[in-house]
UniProtKB/TrEMBL annotation:
Compositionally biased residues, Low complexity: 12-24
InterPro entries in the cross-refs: cNMP-bd_dom (IPR000595), TPR-like_helical_dom_sf (IPR011990)
Name recorded for this polypeptide: Cyclic nucleotide-binding domain-containing protein
Lineage: Bacteria, Pseudomonadati, Myxococcota, Polyangia, Polyangiales
Bias (Gly residues) ranges: 1-11
Boundaries of every Cyclic nucleotide-binding domain copy: 54-144
Region (Disordered): 1-24
Length: 536
């Protein structure tokens, strides 16, 4: 779901959240049977209209094997199963269209799914809409395929090419992390689409655009790939690499369970895994998922775990989405701590063969010693013991105190700074910082004005201790790196964290260097040049 520079996934006050975005049936097997029935009826109708009246062949076993391979994101196996498929078999044609979508060949998928008999079925029509939306969005795109590391990236904007090395690096790391944590290995290539806006995100995935805007969705794992917004699409970037890790976890869960994982499991595990590719950050659990889940339920914003709906991205508000993410993250953390590290891989393996909700319940009970309802009660009893001391601006539905006055002072300070009146700008930013002492963006504006005024000693404490801020913000880290050494391992780590949050801000990407100076690392140098080219 949505993420931006103001915090991690599922956090309030502008923090983006990520969600797998299509309505999930109870089990993929049940959905397959429903879809096949519709296609069979369409085939019968087609046969009755032909001159011979002969029924097109329906190789149901082959269809089911192909669909299972596709849902496991095993394109080579699916291609082999569908090789030399009878063009008259509508059910097999549907799977050929589905496979083309999974492989990113949206033009081929559109052509296959345009057949009237397929378009007349609900599943064929839905897949056709996705294929056509994808084909429109990917016209004249750029594909970068790192075959050595098994990552395929399609860019809607060539200016995002500088982001590709980092996308590839995190994808390769996450392949190893997920194999270790979940017992699931993502096959090569991992496919990533980087798009300009939520309209394209919606067209390529099927998530209603209104839902994407309501909950602030910036990334979706669907159709065997990750589709995510370019960091340039949000004013201060967003935790784009954590977002990628989150969505890759969704793909691993879909592959490992044949798309049978319920939503609470999908999102809870994705939240758990999204930070495991990197070093821990002191703000990773600020505010605590436990505390947000507790407060959200107390304020009527929570949902039962098994009644979150088809997708967190489709909840009525960003606040409810934030609470839902906190709930599932808190529950999975509690369940895995109580059940042991091997419980998750065992559960995924059991879900792969599930055909009903009963199979899920049985698997949970046999693996962990209690059913979901019992675990839910235990977890809620645990939540009741959690301190709920969350700052008002980070609480569900909360807001920054004095927001209007803070915004006015920051804006006036920016105008003064842009005109070279750095001392006067610092005065306005200092007034804003007094009203919002823990807001990192305000601290950065003040620090930048003080630096421009030659008051480095006064600027340094503003970006010294991460404990003094309440959310992750890209420029806080780049200023921290500059003012606390400027070079060496600690500064390098600070600059890296800044890029993880806001890679196309010139100040962050360029490690606070002024043109024409560039960072020494070639990847960061290219990122700096790209950020300067696209800066307003």
């Amino acid at each position: 779901m949505r993420r931006d520079g103001q915090g991690g996934a599922g956090r309030p006050a502008g923090a983006p959240r990520t969600a797998a975005a299509a309505a999930r049936p109870r089990t993929a097997a049940a959905a397959a049977r429903r879809g096949l029935r519709a296609v069979i009826l369409a085939a019968l109708a087609t046969a009755s209209a032909t001159a011979s009246g002969r029924l097109p062949a329906l190789d149901l076993d082959r269809v089911m094997r192909a669909r299972a391979a596709i849902l496991e994101i095993d394109a080579p196996a699916a291609r082999e199963i569908l090789k030399d498929a009878d063009p008259a078999d509508l059910a097999l044609a549907l799977e050929r269209g589905r496979l083309a979508i999974y492989e990113g060949d949206c033009d081929a998928a559109s052509a296959i799914l345009a057949r009237p008999a397929l378009a007349a079925t609900a599943e064929g029509a839905a897949l056709g809409d996705i294929a056509r939306g994808c084909a429109r969005a990917t016209a004249a795109t750029v594909v970068v395929h790192d075959e050595a590391r098994g990552v395929w990236v399609r860019l809607q904007d060539d200016e995002d090419r500088a982001l590709v090395p980092l996308l590839v690096e995190v994808s390769a790391k996450m392949r190893d992390v997920l194999a270790e944590d979940l017992g699931v290995e993502l096959l090569r290539p991992i496919r990533i689409d980087l798009v300009r806006d939520q309209f394209t995100l919606s067209a390529m995935t099927g998530l209603p655009e209104e839902a994407a805007r309501t909950t602030g969705t910036v990334a979706i794992a669907k159709w065997g790939r990750v589709t995510m917004l370019s960091p340039r699409a949000t004013p201060n970037g967003y935790p784009w690499l954590d977002t990628l890790a989150h969505e890759l976890t969704h793909l691993a869960l879909s592959r490992g369970t044949r798309d049978n994982a319920p939503l609470w499991l999908q999102e809870g595990v994705a939240k758990r895994e999204e930070v495991r590719w990197r070093e821990p950050d002191p703000l990773d659990d600020v505010p605590s998922a436990d505390a947000i889940a507790l407060l959200g339920n107390q304020r009527g914003l929570g949902h039962p775990l098994d009644k979150l709906g088809p997708s967190i991205a489709m909840l009525p508000s960003a606040e409810e989405a934030a609470v839902a993410f906190a709930e599932v993250a808190s529950f999975i953390r509690y369940w895995t701590k109580q059940s042991g590290d091997r419980a998750l891989p065992e559960l995924l393996l059991r879900l792969k063969a599930a055909t009903s909700d009963t199979d899920l319940e049985r698997a949970i009970t046999e693996i962990s010693g209690a059913d979901l309802a019992t675990w839910d009660k235990r977890w809620r009893a645990y939540l009741a013991t959690v301190p709920a001391d969350v700052p008002p601006d980070l609480a569900p539905g909360g807001d920054m105190p004095h927001r209007q006055e803070v915004g006015k002072r920051v804006r006036l300070g920016q105008l003064l700074h842009d005109r070279g009146h750095y001392h006067a700008a610092a005065i306005q930013h200092a007034r804003a910082q007094a009203l919002a002492p823990h807001e990192p963006a305000v601290r950065c504006h003040l620090a930048a004005a003080l630096l421009a005024s030659g008051e480095r000693a006064s600027a340094t404490p503003l970006v010294e201790r991460v404990q003094d801020v309440n959310s992750r913000y890209g420029r806080w880290w780049s200023l921290h790196g500059l003012l606390h050494g400027g070079q060496g391992p600690d500064a390098d780590r600070a600059f890296s964290v800044g890029i993880e949050l806001d890679p196309l801000s010139p100040e962050v990407a360029c490690e606070e260097k002024l043109p024409p100076e560039l960072p020494g690392d070639p990847i960061r140098s290219a990122l700096c040049e790209a950020a300067r080219r696209v800066a307003p």
